[in-house]
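Input/output pair, single chain:
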Amino acid sequence: MRITDHRYSAELDKFDLAVRMIQHEARTGTIRACTGFSEDRIRKIYGAYFKGSGASAVRRRRGKSPKRIHQFVNSTPRQLEATVLAGLFLLCEAGELDDGGRISRARGTDRVGLGQRLCQAFEAYRGLHPDPRLSFEWAWNLYHSLVDSHELYLAPCEGCGGRYVQDAYALDYHRCPFCEMKDHRALPSA
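Output:
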């Protein structure tokens, strides 16, 4: 068996994605959704490559992935980071934006390709935010809240014309977190 055989490339892509997601401390269910691997296989990958290696402190989170959207819009800094991450989803071609601010799943992307694009977006987000407020699991939730449930969308800002993450069912003041932060910093301090 040669590792370069084309028939094994899909399996290697899944394995590489699983390792990458474990490094981001993704939950087993999230990894399973992207790779199709069984829970047992994911645990074995973690045990073989991460468990007991003192160099990296990769933790395994237990339980279900977070589902609340309040985390993304309850403060200006969090809304700003959610907006940056949503923009990175679009930049990494994990989704497509329509005129109404709704994001749909990228066409022609299988689940492994989607997982790779989400990892790429999350890694870019961590590069932009040295002390990120959102974990990979929260990024996963953000993506599904934008794409599947449409509880969140990208609303237009009246101040700068840009778009920002907004709760689809909440009162919207049409001000993005960037303009909010800029306005608050411009105020004279007492």
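The first helix runs from residue 9 to 23. The chain is about 50% helix and 10% strand.
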